[in-house]
């Protein structure tokens, strides 16, 4: 059993041959896929795929790059979409100060909106953060003080200090193919130390193909390569890593296990 905890099956590069992509992943031992939304207009298609495929689940949310275009999105829209039985997560949401495609204050406000919906529904919050460690940590800490909610940092590439803060707040850490890159020594050190019950793996497909697939369109099948690499870092077998991360997925995304 192996779960790709974050992929974009409706994105260019995958959607054109979606069924073949899923078939290749299943052949590689991938038994579940969390298909992530980044814009409101994607929600219907992402939920529809989850309705069609029993091993695919959906998220609903707004990526920080899209915050300006969704500045008026309220909790009600997210709550309505999240009520669908195949929706198991809120996001991806968060802060991205690397590109600054959206106003930072708008990103922060929408991030808090998603957190409120996660808290109300009990669905895990999928957090994107890039060059925004301090504000991400401050908002998550402040919001946890208002009432706990389940959450994870997807495609973790931040500092060890930030990682420890997230673990202390109760978050899970999800590792993408970036951890396999030769220049990712600091990230590899973090990956080796994440508590066993807080670890997930993902592709972020069609982005960030791991070694030995760099330069190609990333597919969910490649999560097997990331899992194998992380297992080596942690000194465990590939089979054990697959079992651990799958168990963590279903413990966190309890709606997927139902």
Automatic annotation (TrEMBL):
GO molecular-function terms, A-Z: hydrolase activity
UniProt entry keywords in alphabetical sequence: Hydrolase, Metal-binding
PROSITE patterns: TATD_1, TATD_2, TATD_3
InterPro entries in the cross-refs: DNase_TatD-rel_CS (IPR018228), Metal_Hydrolase (IPR032466), TatD-like (IPR001130), TatD/YcfH-like (IPR015991)
Top-level taxonomic group: Bacteria
CDD domains referenced in this protein's UniProt entry, alphabetically: TatD_DNAse (cd01310)
The family this protein is said to belong to: Belongs to the metallo-dependent hydrolases superfamily. TatD-type hydrolase family.
Name assigned to this protein: TatD family hydrolase
């Amino acid at each position: 059993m192996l779960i790709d905890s974050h992929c974009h099956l409706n994105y260019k590069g995958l959607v054109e041959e979606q069924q073949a992509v899923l078939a290749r992943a299943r052949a590689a031992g991938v038994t579940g896929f969390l298909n992530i939304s980044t814009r409101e207009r994607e929600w219907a298609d992402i939920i529809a795929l989850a309705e069609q495929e029993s091993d695919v689940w959906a998220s609903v949310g707004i990526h920080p790059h899209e915050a300006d275009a969704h500045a008026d999105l309220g909790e009600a829209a997210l709550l309505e979409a999240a009520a669908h039985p195949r929706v198991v997560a809120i996001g991806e949401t968060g802060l991205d100060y690397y590109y600054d495609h959206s106003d930072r204050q708008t990103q922060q406000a929408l991030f808090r909106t998603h957190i409120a919906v996660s808290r109300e529904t009990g669905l895990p919050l999928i957090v994107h953060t890039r060059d925004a460690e301090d504000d991400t940590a401050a908002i998550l800490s402040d919001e946890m003080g208002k009432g706990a909610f389940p959450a994870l940092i997807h495609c973790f590439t931040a500092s060890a200090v930030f990682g420890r803060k997230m673990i202390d707040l109760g978050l899970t850490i999800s590792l993408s193919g970036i951890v396999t890159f030769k220049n990712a020594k600091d990230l590899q050190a973090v990956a080796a130390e994440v508590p066993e019950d807080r670890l997930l793996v993902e592709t972020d497909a069609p982005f960030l193909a791991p070694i030995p697939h760099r330069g190609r369109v990333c597919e969910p099948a490649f999560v097997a390569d990331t899992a194998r690499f992380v297992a080596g870092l942690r000194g465990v077998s590939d089979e054990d890593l697959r079992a651990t991360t799958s168990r963590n997925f279903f413990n966190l995304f309890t709606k997927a296990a139902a």
